[in-house]
Amino acid sequence: MTEPRTPEPPHTPESRQAPGAQRPPESSRATDWDLRKLRILKALSECGTVTATAEALLMTPSAVSQQLTNLARQVGVPLLEAQGRRVRLTDAAHLVLRHAEAVFAQLERADADLAGYARGEAGEVRVGAFSTAVPALVVPAVRRLRAAAPGLEVRVREAEAAEAYELLASGHVDLALSLAAHAPTARDPKFTRVPLLADPLDVALPSGHPMAAEAGLRLADLSGERWIFGGSGPWSEITRAACEAAGFVPEQAHSAAGWTAILSMVEAGMGVALVPRMAAQRAPGVVTRTLSPDQPMRHVVAAVRRGAEEGPALARVLRTLREAAEAYRSPYDT
User: Fold this and answer.
1) Which residue among 145, 192, 253, 289 is buried most deeply as judged by most CB within 10 Å?
2) What is the pLDDT of residues 128-144, one digit of tens each?
3) How does 229-257 read in b/e, with b if 16+ C-beta sit within 10 Å?
């Protein structure tokens, strides 16, 4: 008489799972994911290392590692893998982040909706803007808002063009006013960009310069001149790029970052300089000339965190900045 055979367990997805593979616990759902841990994962993807992430978030490296370990356990898939002495995000981590970006954008919209419900046209908008944009665009916009929406307060923080986006990404400002050449691409999922204007670049010459009254002045005509521009940073790059597009590399005679210093040196006959029309200042002994036929430009853009543009206060500031840009552009568009 043979003994009855023990029935084999049914073949379930779990029983067919490869040895060592992780599966999320039955209670783990995307709706249970910890937003704080997701933000740490997002910060790691942007900072590159655990140490840099810890510094950015004011945490210890061990706390960052522990939070990410807990998140991996919660979602049920590996999020990090060793790469030498560092770690890299797994494909699963990039998948989680794609969904997390959508969640963060939706939360920005929720905050914007709540702000609109609670305050209407009132509230506070923090603007980070590069120096020449403050008097040309931000101040006129604030004057308009004071008349039309006195309950809406705009706080301005001057920042270099590239720094404005760092402040925006970190939440220190709500709107960044910068140059397109130093902005993230339009496909960046974190930001919504709004073009404002193309600011012409004119050439500043000493009043006694032989070309100061020459008709149809071209940038290429000034290839043999001594140039004044910053040693590094956005304006150095813009000047070099404009001259190279005209077919020459500018000889830098002097380095200065402030327009007062640059124009003083131009007046003294120490060189010539490209000056954005937005930054034009009256200076005795200096002639500012429009260039032709291809006027070099720099492009000014505004940006907000994606989803936040639907907030009434921020939308109002953006709209007023566009109006200020249109009013500023009109005199030299005609």
Assistant:
1) 145
2) 999 889 999 999 999 99
3) bbeeebbbebbbebbeebeeebebebebe
